[in-house]
Specification:
The chain is α/β, with parallel strands linked by helices and 320 residues long. It contains 12 helices and 9 strands. Strand 4 (186-187) and strand 5 form a beta hairpin. Helix 2 runs parallel beside helix 5. The radius of gyration is 22 Å and the shape is elongated.
């Protein structure tokens, strides 16, 4: 019995030590990643920790991250804007990001909300979920963990969620000890697309049945309207913006697209929010401005952002 007892004691001691080591590594990794300006971590880390006090915030999906360049909005509108859009997600996550921003910052003067055929859909669940690793215990972040496939073990067992994501463990540890610090590639949340249009994305979008899928999910629509209600309550001016889309993509939207646009129109009238629709701009017919069928490159973003800034100025949305 004695050897078995010693074995069990050693096993328990080993488990306790391993657990404590895992907790320490988890804390070091997460604290380090909270400072890393890389990909989606850059924007989330910024709004989690910094007091920014922006006049204008841009919310949307990947079309938002690449289309709205704060440089031109700031220079034309004489404001301080920031793009907190997030790729692969819908207004469930955008609404969450805005609530996180408001936790540390005063109410902005203007919200620019990107709208399109997928903003009210299901999103790409689990897309780049690593950005939430350092904040898994945050009360707001916990609201979306289930939808991003975080299990009970991910949330409560130290380092479990980092399995298969060891490069982020390395980044976090190195940054925590000040050994290596990556440089951010965004400008105030805007991502510079430098690729050229070759039609591949267009073919992929139409590959299934010759049309681009469109949808509305009840939960996403609720989150979007909650955002509008919060803006109304806080007396924040709001504008919905349909940023440019290559004309072939526009011509091949599914029949449900009309329902989506009608939904935006109903919300526009209900909350007295203007819609700026840029699907008829000449640039929509010139692939020079696009990196693919639905995303502007940096040249297109410049031209669009200038146009948008002048239209916002004409509407007087920042004058009160």
């Amino acid at each position: 019995l004695m050897p078995m007892k010693k074995f069990l004691l050693r096993l328990i001691l080993f488990i306790i030590v391993a657990y404590l080591v895992a907790i320490i590594i988890d804390i070091i990794t997460s604290k380090g990643l909270q400072r890393v300006p890389k990909n989606h971590l850059e924007t989330l880390n910024t709004i989690m920790h910094d007091t920014l006090n922006h006049d204008v915030l841009i919310l949307g999906n990947s079309r938002g991250t690449c289309a709205y360049n704060p440089l031109y909005l700031d220079s034309i509108l004489c404001c301080n804007s920031r793009n907190i859009s997030i790729s692969g997600q819908t207004y469930i996550v955008s609404n969450l990001r805005y609530r996180i921003y408001r936790r540390n910052n005063p109410t902005p003067k203007l919200l620019i909300l990107n709208i399109d055929h997928i903003e009210l859909g299901s999103g790409t669940l689990g897309f780049e979920r690593y950005q939430y690793f350092p904040y898994i215990q945050d009360t707001l972040i916990q609201e979306i963990l289930d939808s991003h496939y975080f299990t009970w073990m991910d949330q409560y067992i130290p380092m479990w969620r980092y399995q298969g994501n060891y490069k982020y463990v390395g980044l976090g540890v190195l940054d925590f000890f000040g050994i290596y610090h990556t440089n951010g590639k965004q400008y105030k949340g805007w991502s510079k697309n430098v690729g050229t249009f070759d039609g591949t994305n267009m073919r992929n979008l139409l590959a299934t049945d010759g049309e681009i899928k469109c949808s509305i999910y009840d939960s996403t629509l609720i989150a979007f309207e909650q955002l509008l209600q919060q803006a109304e309550f806080e007396r924040t001016n709001t504008v919905m913006v349909y940023s440019p889309v290559y004309y072939i993509a526009q011509e091949n939207m599914s029949t449900y697209f009309d329902t989506i646009m009608s939904t935006y129109q109903e919300l526009s009238e209900k909350y007295n929010i203007p819609i700026l629709d840029y699907r008829t701009l000449p640039m929509n017919y010139d692939s020079t401005y696009f990196v693919d069928a639905t995303h502007l490159n940096y040249i297109g973003a410049r031209e669009f952002s200038i146009e948008l800034a002048h239209d916002i100025d004409s509407l007087g949305l920042l004058k009160n």
